[in-house]
Write a structure and sequence with these properties.
This protein is mostly helical. The protein folds into 2 domains: 1-150; 154-316, no CATH class. 73% of the residues lie in helices and 0% in strands. It has helices at 9-35, 59-87, 93-118, 123-148, 161-187, 210-238, 243-268, 273-297, 300-315. Helix 1 (9-35) runs antiparallel to helix 2 (59-87), helix 1 runs antiparallel to helix 8 and helix 5 packs antiparallel against helix 8 (273-297). 41% of the residues are buried.
């Protein structure tokens, strides 16, 4: 009877992948709430209105309430990943510890989302809401990768120390770039309350010049990130990196190129909501590509250990 409730590694890997998809999807629907001006479609929290858990039958209320309702589905997927880690056989403690971050992250998002509504979409709360999503995706990708690979699995036939170190550099550069992007949105026209007629405070630390200043910094950081990705793509091919590493870096370069084009178009068209949503969506996808690239090369310490083993084998 007990064996009926155990999970094979393959089944647990599927649960981890579903959790990753769902926690990515909630980012995209959250961005849709923002750019459609529906952030205060449900003006209170945890209820939608002062007197009801449900929304009025209007477009913006439905959009905001739908995003809240999806959170429960996402929470179930995150909880399933955590509980499933205990039932996976063979049992692995690392999967339990990583999967615990998923339901904790969803809980944190629910609380932070509540404060975001209660404080009328204040820029700091909205930015934090998106950035916390990016942190949760770190745990999701780590869980998805580890669920599909044994802890000591080889990443590839070769190991290049420079490639690994530069690939890990993608995380801080990408994180700062995304942070600047959230600041650009917080200073721009899509405050999240236009659809319901609410006036939302914007970032204005440089007055009327704030939006232009933040966009310029975001563009500079994105350029640095793009150059780094291309350098890594070239280095991966010259150093004989594994096919997994090359695919990850290729995907990252393509996504960054698309982001550059879309970012330029949205700026030229004065930030239409639809294109801003695509830009935010691709930002989350690009972050996933960065995490995939880092997962594919592994930790520098593990790489050095593989080199030592290879050298010992050659000497013998």
């Amino acid at each position: 009877m007990k064996d009926r409730y155990t999970l094979t590694p393959e089944r647990y890997a599927l649960i981890a992948r579903i959790a990753l998809v769902m926690l990515t999807l909630i980012v995209l629907t959250g961005a849709a709430v923002r750019v459609t001006g529906s952030g205060l479609g449900c003006p209170t929290w945890p209820k939608c209105t002062d007197s009801s858990l449900y929304t009025k039958l209007n477009t913006h209320g439905v959009i905001e309430f739908g995003n809240r309702a999806l959170t429960s589905v996402v929470g179930f997927a995150a909880l399933a990943a955590f509980v499933g880690a205990f039932r996976r056989r063979p049992f692995r403690k690392d999967l339990v510890l990583i999967s615990l971050l998923l339901p904790l992250g969803v809980l944190g998002q629910a609380v932070l989302g509540g404060f975001t509504v209660l404080y009328d979409l204040a820029p700091g709360f909205v930015m934090s809401h998106y950035l916390l999503s990016m942190l949760i995706l770190v745990a999701c990708v780590a869980l998805d990768w580890r669920a599909r690979h044994e802890p000591d699995a080889e990443r590839g036939a070769t190991y290049d120390r420079l490639l690994v170190r530069l690939t890990w550099l993608l995380i801080p550069v990408g994180a700062i770039t995304i942070f600047a992007g959230t600041a650009a949105t917080a200073a721009g026209p899509h405050a999240g309350g236009s659809g319901t007629g609410d006036v939302v405070k914007r970032l204005e630390f440089k007055g009327s010049d704030t939006l232009r200043f933040v966009i310029e910094q975001h563009a500079r950081l994105a350029t640095i990130l793009g150059v780094l990705a291309v350098v890594l793509w070239v280095l991966a091919r010259r150093s004989g990196a594994s096919s997994e590493q090359r695919r990850a870096l290729t995907s990252l370069c393509v996504l960054l190129a698309l982001q550059g084009v879309i970012g330029g178009v949205q700026y030229a068209l004065e930030l239409p909501a639809e294109i801003v949503w695509v830009h935010v969506t691709l930002a989350a996808t690009t972050w996933l590509a960065i995490l995939w690239s880092v997962a594919a090369v592994g930790r520098p310490e593990a790489g050095r250990e593989r080199v030592r083993r290879a050298e010992k084998a050659a000497a013998a």
